[in-house]
Automatic annotation (TrEMBL):
This is Bacterial type II secretion system protein E domain-containing protein. Residues 189-203 form the Bacterial type II secretion system protein E domain. GO terms for molecular function: ATP binding; ATP hydrolysis activity. Pfam families: T2SSE. Belongs to the GSP E family. InterPro entries: AAA+_ATPase (IPR003593), P-loop_NTPase (IPR027417), PilT/PilU (IPR006321), T2SS/T4SS_dom (IPR001482), T4SS_GSP_E_ATPase (IPR050921).
Length: 342
């Protein structure tokens, strides 16, 4: 019932918590559902109905459950079940059944074609709920429809399911099919992959193996919770001990294909949210900046790289306003915020 309401509203998340009505997040805003408050015992019964015996056991042991739940004809949902002060609670994130195309998510074909390179490293970044997974899925869909290759996706939990077109797509879920991102990535290198998608560049070991995979002839996709290209490069390098950072900068400089940093802004008509992106392409000059530790110069490289598909967040905001996708006030406020951070 509540998950159907989430899909029908066009919302992104459903919150179920003790002694309050269900709450939907629609276009970034929380909206209570017109329903009575849910007692703790009712909440537990309702949540347990959709869990497997193994998942219930995890709950009984006080652990969280991360998984996907599917309702035929309605949709797929990423769910997190957890304990809080007054009992069990849950948050469900709606996952579109149909993978969006690059046109639908607003990625140009010039940028998407970078994903067809034989090897490299594409990183999609942004805050939680900024649409990183949707953008990655669209890029994988583009590869799937335009190249004959073996694609291995590693996610926690598994979100988008791709139909085989020109490519073969192997889906693996951390927890269900493998113990960790790093184990799955290491194993993937023995599975004849051409393209590897990592749901999250979670730790030093995963990042290290991802860099090695890109170095050894694979196209690797991954996500980070960073706000822009410069911060992403710095974060990857700084994860490693000081005595290894120069080596990692060298590795990253040789494999980086693109960094797509994105956020969602409220649409002008109030009926949705619009993706706004900063895009960095790994040109020779950008790679030299990474190798030589000149990260502060990356922004200037983006400003001068428009012909290659690069763009700053400010330019994306201005374009969205010009096309009538976002309001002038929203654009002005966000550009002011960006200027204060530089």
């Amino acid at each position: 019932m509540f998950l159907r309401a989430l899909v029908n509203s066009g919302g992104s998340d459903l919150h179920l918590s003790y002694n309050v009505p269900p709450v939907l997040r629609v276009h970034g805003n929380l909206k209570p559902v017109k329903f009575k408050m849910i007692p703790a015992d009712t909440m537990k019964k309702m949540i347990y109905q959709i869990l497997s015996p193994q998942q219930r056991e995890l709950c009984e042991n006080g652990e969280e459950v991360d998984a996907c739940y599917t309702i035929e004809g309605v949709g797929r949902f990423r769910m997190n079940i957890f304990h809080q002060l007054y009992g069990l609670a849950a948050v469900f994130r709606a996952i579109p059944i149909r993978v969006k195309t690059i046109d639908e998510v607003g990625i140009s074909e010039a940028i998407a074609k970078l994903a067809l390179h034989g090897q490299g490293f594409v990183i999609v970044t942004g805050a939680t709920g900024s649409g990183k997974s949707t953008t990655l899925a669209a890029l994988i869909d583009y590869v799937n429809k335009n190249d004959a290759c073996h694609i291995v996706t590693i996610e926690d939990p598994l979100e988008f399911v791709h139909t085989n077109y020109k490519s073969i797509v192997t889906h693996r879920e951390v927890g269900a099919h493998t113990n960790s991102f790093s184990n799955a990535l290491r194993a993937a290198l023995r599975q004849d992959p051409d393209v590897i998608l990592l749901g999250e560049l979670r730790d030093l070991l995963t990042i290290e193996i991802a860099l090695t995979a890109a170095e050894t002839g694979h196209m690797v996709f991954g996500t980070l919770h960073t706000n822009n290209a410069s911060e992403t490069i710095s974060r990857i390098i700084s994860v490693f001990p000081a005595d290894r950072q120069q080596q990692i900068a060298m590795q990253l400089s040789t494999v980086l294909t693109a960094i797509i940093a994105q956020e969602l802004m409220p649409s002008k008509d109030g009926k949705g949210r619009v993706p706004i992106r900063e895009i960095l392409v790994g040109t020779n000059s950008v790679r030299a900046m990474i190798r030589d530790g000149k990260i502060p110069q990356i922004y200037s490289a983006i400003e001068t790289g428009k012909k290659l598909g690069m763009r700053t967040m400010k330019e994306s905001i201005e374009e969205a306003e010009r096309l009538g996708k976002i309001s002038a006030d929203v654009a002005k406020d966000r550009i002011t915020e960006l200027a204060m951070k530089q």
